[in-house]
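Researcher: Quick test of sequence recovery. Tokens follow.
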């Protein structure tokens, strides 16, 4: 059983401590339950923009250089990230520098000044980040995929926003958004690695005593409506077409969430998975071909991602569809099923050797889910999946009204690919 504790303060702030023996690494992770799903259309990208701005200066560290140098001087690693559902900040240091890391994270989280002169400069930085993603079709197909599934609502907007929306965001917008969303009830603090349950909990409690208590803005309900296969193509003159082909899936609390995870793994999560063997090894159509399941508080999907020679796109799509269809017609054998389960458990076990991964594992569950599972409890959920479960979920998911294709390549006739999906699924 994992040695972890979760405590909630009177103001709603949750603090999680996860000691790990045999490591010198100490991690401080702060997660706030706000992301692109919480935004208004005219301020798309504000969550991500604010994440950038928290590295631009505090009252104690008034410049970006002074913020960065603090942990650079002790060889620490630190970063931040924004998703549809949350934003996070972390620092990882040698255990002897834990107090410094905790103070540093609390400083940028609670006392950033959002300097006006840095706001304008950072708009240019984010613009280049958007350009970078757009110029990388392997990455940008994921943006198209989200847009295809959810359309013009927060769940379908790019986390980074657009150049126009980011350009219109003011310092006042950022300050107001931070004061509302970065509140005690919306925040989880995780201490992991070489830490002490009682002593370091008290330290975190003291450092974050000044956190605000405003009621945060909730994300709107996600609207999903589909009755036939859908296609989203971005025409671009490339030698290789990059595509996401998959189906709508299950949210975090769905009873078949772990069935979906096992199904996605045997379908395309390993080098010995069905898609890898068929599309790459047997047909030689792709260098990369994979599948994964994604579940979050209100949406979910299963998607295969691949890069194909533009001349082989239709052949590749048909091969992937064939593997989808097999999973709704026949349950997998016990050996294949067990391989997928053991793969999932082994990957998680290895990943959790890292203190920062351990912090994220517990922090994300605490922030987004109704209950927190230890790794052993999660393994039991995975082990409980049966071949009949896989077949039942395959029949539920692999149907035309849940099928979607997002692609970047030298094509413009979406109707042609809609017909291809409809006639072959």
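Model:
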């Amino acid at each position: 059983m994992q040695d972890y504790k979760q405590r909630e303060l009177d103001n709603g702030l949750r603090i999680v401590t996860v000691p790990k023996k045999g490591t010198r690494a100490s991690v401080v992770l702060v997660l706030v339950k706000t992301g692109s799903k919480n935004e208004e259309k005219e301020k798309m990208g504000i969550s991500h923009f604010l994440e950038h701005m928290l590295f631009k200066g505090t009252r104690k560290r008034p410049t970006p250089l002074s913020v960065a140098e603090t942990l650079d001087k002790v060889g620490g690693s630190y970063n931040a990230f924004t998703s549809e559902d949350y934003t996070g900040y972390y620092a990882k240091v040698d255990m002897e520098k834990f107090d410094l890391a905790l103070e540093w994270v609390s400083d940028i989280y609670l006392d950033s000044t959002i300097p006006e002169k840095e706001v304008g400069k950072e708009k240019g930085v984010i613009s280049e980040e958007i350009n970078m993603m757009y110029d990388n079709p392997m990455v940008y197909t994921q943006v198209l995929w989200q847009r295809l599934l959810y359309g013009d609502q927060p769940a379908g907007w790019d986390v980074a926003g657009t150049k126009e929306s980011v350009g219109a965001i003011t310092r006042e917008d950022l300050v107001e958004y931070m004061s509302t969303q970065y509140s005690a009830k919306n925040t989880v603090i995780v201490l992991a690695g070489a830490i002490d349950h009682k002593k370091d909990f008290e330290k975190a409690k003291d450092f974050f005593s000044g956190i605000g208590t405003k009621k945060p803005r909730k994300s709107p309900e996600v609207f999903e409506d589909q009755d036939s296969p859908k296609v989203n193509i971005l025409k671009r003159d490339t030698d290789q077409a990059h595509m996401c082909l998959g189906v709508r899936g299950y949210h975090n609390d769905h009873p078949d969430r772990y069935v979906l995870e096992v199904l996605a793994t045997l379908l395309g999560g390993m080098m010995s998975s069905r898609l890898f063997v068929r599309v790459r090894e047997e047909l030689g159509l792709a260098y990369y071909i994979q599948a994964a399941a994604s579940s979050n508080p209100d949406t979910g999907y299963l998607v295969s991602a691949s890069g194909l020679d533009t001349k082989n796109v239709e052949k590749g799509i048909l091969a992937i569809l064939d593997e989808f269809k097999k999973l709704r017609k026949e349950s997998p054998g016990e050996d294949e099923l067990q391989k997928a389960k053991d793969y999932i458990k082994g990957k998680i076990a290895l990943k959790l050797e890292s203190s920062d991964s351990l912090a994220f594992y517990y922090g994300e569950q605490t922030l987004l889910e109704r209950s927190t599972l230890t790794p052993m409890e999660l393994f039991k959920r995975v082990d409980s999946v049966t071949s009949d479960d896989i077949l039942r979920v395959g029949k539920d998911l692999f149907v035309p009204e849940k099928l979607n294709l997002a692609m970047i390549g030298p094509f413009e006739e979406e109707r042609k690919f809609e017909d291809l999906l409809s006639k072959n699924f």
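The chain is about 45% helix and 20% strand.
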